[in-house]
């Protein structure tokens, strides 16, 4: 059983049922009789006024139970609350206007999906098309098409931040550099799409919803506010298994409200399973971002200041938790570097694209792409090795815990050690030697490096950075950083644990069982884990859910502490029976044993039986039953202060990447020859799961770097509606990946663990871009690096070289 | 999407013109046209059923003929809406006599699509347009030949 303890590579407990086809996913649920099915009519226009909707023909189709339009939604719900002051009215169904292609316009409830889909065609919508805008900077211009008349501008949020003395640093620096970067809109593409079952109970005016929603459960209050009910009248239950999310399933909440209303109007329970086209066009996505970056640096490569103007495209409506993408990395904005002067200007802009939300890496990929490209450009400008520039600037091991200029508290790390390990295992110097030869042979061979700090366990107070300190002062301070778990033992002595981390494939059940098993001295395989979250019966907090890699730092800590509570209780009961003080007792192999005298013991089964069957036999002050809940939070997760300092995450890991690529000069295709990644995520809870997470994050990052883009034409038409158009990496695109770890345990979490599922989403696009720039000597400031884009850059460079040649010739 | 092309038709300018302006002929020659009904001067309502890539569906279309200079020139405006999205197209057609028996027809068009058709069918649109156009003229040629045969 020690073999399966914390930190051991135990096989995932979930896989037994998943591999036998016994998973219980959203579409497998059938919790109520008489469930009807929903189809959604969606806008073909990126921007249009809805002049009329005629639904009578659809309503008359046999089997149709109800048709819901925007006016009903406007009368039965309120716009979703959002954390900015701009008065944006976002409903679950378009009211009066549509603002992106795919926006829901009407809903049909019918006996089955076939009838519902057919009835959609009978709905007549009269649109008055309006000019659309999709370009981020165009949307900010005064004469741009305006999406929300009541806001008066397409800018939904704007903030500026000064840390240190940026102007002075720029004046004193030997050099400065500036560049504009564009990060594309891309997505997460889980195998399982959104799904909702909703039932309205008229007698109690309450809604019960089953959805593969994964939090953050702060959005529960957003949904309840939209439906105008107290939280206990909106019961949300998540299924046992979730077919992947990578952040995107946070974006299901408008559909939860829409289905709740549909059930209310139609008078029957309703079910909706999103199809793939709907998912690509209209679920959610990451933001596309324009970044203007300026860096001040000295001859020796030391970077002294950064200025960043970041403009996020949040799509047709700014919706919760946006504009969080701009602020999630606020505390770790300088990455792993000792840069003390920082200026940031943040904008959230609305355009006629699908609204955005959480995507694995949330904000990190957008943020580190310009920074890591700039680090390499600095090296080029100084004629230095990029590795040397990184070395010069990395935070030193003796500086932890390190306070960043914007208020982040990096809990632990040894960045130099991790980086040197990377260069060693990746044979960096040999690669550089090889590169000289390869380039001489006319090969476009390049090496890319990237170092990032991976935040995990969000302090949700960071979202209020969207407000000014004065605006923040008007409401309660917010930090929202707690997680809960319950451990219980039934009369037969068997142990269960209920978690509120809504796993979507990360193996939380396994790690929860490992932790409880180790603390209670039992085999993890005998621990039953309940991962379904029920807002009426589970212990949970506003921060609960599966996002910001929060299981390792926070979720696991709550489990650990709940298990500790049970342990203390077992020891206390046993102490009476064994007439031994608690300090002299231990838990091992399902028994409480006296230390140094293992013959003297009492089984957990006996202790649990006693607490259930004979409470009177317990010593005084011991409650009957064994059912312990623990809430865990971290003391460093404070609300932002009036000086705009915030520690936006609980733990901060480190990722260093090295990638070698070769670019085909004729086709522009990028071939990844080798990928090395070194992680420091503190204490690893299960190395097997850890490496699985890293592979997944890296491949998602690879998608962002080379393949994936939700593209729109200039008129706002969506062009990537299938997997033929939206390319995801498949098995054949995955390069050789070499993972290495160092472990500097976090002093802020009881197990020393940090999150790690998102790091490579943040680092891989930058590392590959650096490698392609190194291979081609082209300026890479836009992704994805599709053959088309790279080929065009190569052509442009060739033409410029020819021009120079011709000029030189005459 | 934009395109243009030309085709040589066996028939005089007048013969070609009369076919192109005849609603009963047009409804036969437009692929997927289930009905074509005159609803105003030079304005028709059409029921079109076309598949573009995987997106098959029905479009309610308004077809307008403008800028008419018989028998040499006209402009066609098509606005179709349906389950798969919308199609707005504009075509300009010019006829020039080659000799007593043959006419050169040249055309230019531009089309915009929206909704599912754009999200799924965009890559196929050029090919679909070519198919629809070549099929149309093939059928028109047949109609001209047929009436010539009947006349002789």
Q: Would you mind describing this structure in some detail?
A:
The complex is a heterodimer of chains A (810) and B (152). Chain A is an alpha+beta fold and 810 residues long. Chain A has 4 domains: 193 residues, Aldehyde oxidase/xanthine dehydrogenase, a/b hammerhead (Aldehyde Oxidoreductase, domain 3, Alpha-Beta Complex); 138 residues, Aldehyde oxidase/xanthine dehydrogenase, molybdopterin binding domain (Aldehyde Oxidoreductase, domain 4), CATH 3.30.365; 152 residues, Aldehyde oxidase/xanthine dehydrogenase, molybdopterin binding domain (Aldehyde Oxidoreductase, domain 4), CATH 3.30.365.10; 159 residues, Aldehyde oxidase/xanthine dehydrogenase, molybdopterin binding domain (Aldehyde Oxidoreductase, domain 4), CATH 3.30.365.10. Chain A contains 21 helices and 28 strands. Chain A has a 7-stranded mixed β-sheet with strand order 3-5-1-12-9-10-11. In chain A, strand 23 and strand 24 form a beta hairpin. In chain A, helix 11 runs parallel beside helix 20, helix 16 packs parallel to helix 17 and helix 19 packs across helix 20. The longest helix of chain A is centred in the last third of the chain and has 28 residues. Chain A is globular and about 100 Å long. With 152 residues, chain B is α+β, with helices and mostly antiparallel strands. Chain B has a single domain, classed as START domain (Alpha-D-Glucose-1,6-Bisphosphate, Chain A, domain 4, 2-Layer Sandwich). In chain B, 32% of the residues lie in helices and 51% in strands. Chain B has 4 helices and 7 strands, in the order E-H-H-E-E-E-E-E-E-H-H. In chain B, helix 1 crosses helix 4 and helix 2 crosses helix 4. The longest helix of chain B is centred in the C-terminal third of the chain and has 27 residues. Chain B is globular and about 50 Å long. The model of chain B has no long low-confidence stretch (mean pLDDT 90). Classes of the chains: A alpha+beta (810), B alpha+beta (152). Chains A and B meet through helix 9 of A and strand 7 and helix 3 of B.
